[in-house]
Amino acid sequence: MMWTTRQEERIVYGTTISSGLAMGRAVIYTDILLRDHELYTITQKALKEELKRIEMALREVSDDLHCSAQRIEKELNSHMAGIFRAQLAILHDKLLVEEIKAELETELINAEQIIKRVFRKWELRFRQLNDEQMASKADDIVDLSRKILGALIGIHAHTLEHLPAGSIIVARRLLPSDTVFLSRKSTRGIVTEFGGPASHAALLTKEIGVPALSKIADVLNIVKNRDFLLLDCVTGNLVINPQEKTRRCFEKRIAERKVYLLNSRRCCSEISVRKNGQSVAVLANVSCRDDVEVALKNGAEGIGLFRIENIYLSRKLPPSTQELIDEIQNTIEPAQGKPTTIRLLDVGGDKKLTYLNYSSGEDSFLGRRGVRFLLEFPELLYTQLNALIRLSENFDIRILVPMVTFHQEMGLVREIFDDLTGSGGSKEIMLGAMIETPAAALCVEQFLPYVDFISIGTNDLTQYTMAVGRENSSVTQYFVENHPAIIKMIDHVVKYSGGIPVSVCGELAARFDTISTLAECGIGTLSVAPSLIPQVKNVIRES
Ligand code: PEP
Ligand code: MG
Fold first, then answer.
1. Domain 47-152, second-level architecture
2. Which of 41, 153, 275, 299 has its C-alpha lying 20 to 30 A from 84's C-alpha?
3. What DSSP string runs through 206-268?
């Protein structure tokens, strides 16, 4: 990354993770714990008042945790409720409360700073023990400090939920737990310091069809809140506070691009057939109702991947079966009558459920993720399968199991699924495996007794094959999703899949330069971000 100055206008260069052009005002986003909270000294006289503020915040968080524990015990099980009780126990630990008081009395500074300091010390104490259980306790402490700070400051809604229209979000990193609250209607673009092309920030921006630029070092010191920005994710740069002339040129380019996109949408509702007569269906990757609506407008032949993680990440507790049915139904309603593939919860990696006290281990992407996690928390699996079975009465539901490594994992899910449907092996609702690990790709034939279809998740398959973290922007040059090794694996999966449908739902499915290769491997279905459907269909027709 480098930057140059032209009078007051500044240009910084980064890496495009979602293409497009956007113009708007910067909204700086930082984690509540990383914000510069005001630091001020207090007098002995004000001590009592400050202590009262802290006590009230602790009580509010404690009441919240208490309600969560009670509800979860009623609706799920006591094991999970215990997780909230563990957080409550930390909160009520006499030593912690005494340390907060002592720190306040000796330092005589405001409550926010005291909470940050004391909780950071406690976090480090547990973290230094280098033990998985203690690390998860340290995570709990961080989570608690976020909640208490929120209560102190009076933030109960997420900052990204209410953005001014036309905002360009500028952040060091965006995690799924941040973006779940993102106001999609107000977001024009995203600029980050970290996050590779397959990071979840990248997927989200492609999904909502806004440009995103990453790998801008020290971005929070370069861009200020409300700066005017031109985000050029065609050439990969960001102009901060542009001159009038630059701005006018940019507006012209935006208008030209609009015309181009409109043209490509003209025949988007027709199927896409290659010159050799092979037809390739184009479906959509979605995670909310807006996505489904855009996808259908853009000619999606169905939903190829519904990522349901947002439903879980946006809550304080896992949804009940009925809540899950309601949320999913509301999202997929516009696609009724079309094939709709719903992926079971894929948490772990960078998506962490704060209400479940588990640790993915040190390498979160190589730890408890996807089906590994579901088999450890079978209550979550039952809730999802029951909800999807009920939804299948009105929708053409297909169920996709994420991150399988061993065929035995798929065998277990199949067994539970058949027990729930009472069909003893009926294949009315299609159950599929998401092939994202090289082990599953190379041994795909072992999965065949348990699956009705296969979907290849090339984002993770690339991460695990190329040994490159998908969130790690320092090694993006290794994230080559169309590397011959990946193509060979896709070819292998199709060859040994015994003729069941095989689709590709990772970002590779929308790479214009690789679509014909995928079709030649025998891939008959691509599932891509809603905004890209018209262009992907055109590329298929021209191949
Ligand atoms: C993938 O890994 O390719 C995929 C589609 O799943 P996700 O990006 O949600 O991990
Ligand atoms: Mg994946």
1. Orthogonal Bundle (1.10)
2. 153
3. HHHT--EEE--TTHHHHS-TT-EEEEETTTTEEEES--HHHHHHHHHHHHHHHHHHHHHTTTT
Tens digit of pLDDT for each residue in 406-428?
Answer: 999 999 999 999 999 985 444 48
CB distance 506 to ligand 1 below 6 Å: yes
Ligand 1 atom nearest to 203, measured from its CA: 8
- Please give the number of the atom of ligand 1 that sits closest to the Cα of 507: 3
User: What is the C-alpha end-to-end distance of the chain, expressed in Å?
Assistant: 36
pLDDT in tens, 114-165: 999 999 999 999 888 877 677 777 877 887 888 898 888 876 556 677 789 9
pLDDT of residue 424: 47
Pocket test for ligand 1, best of 283, 342, 346 (most atoms within 8 A of CB): 346
State the architecture of 10-30+172-260 in CATH terms. 3-Layer(bba) Sandwich (3.50)
Query: Is the pLDDT assigned to residue 24 strictly greater than 90?
Result: yes
Distance 370 CA to ligand 2 centre (A): 8
Q: Which pTM does this prediction carry?
A: 0.74
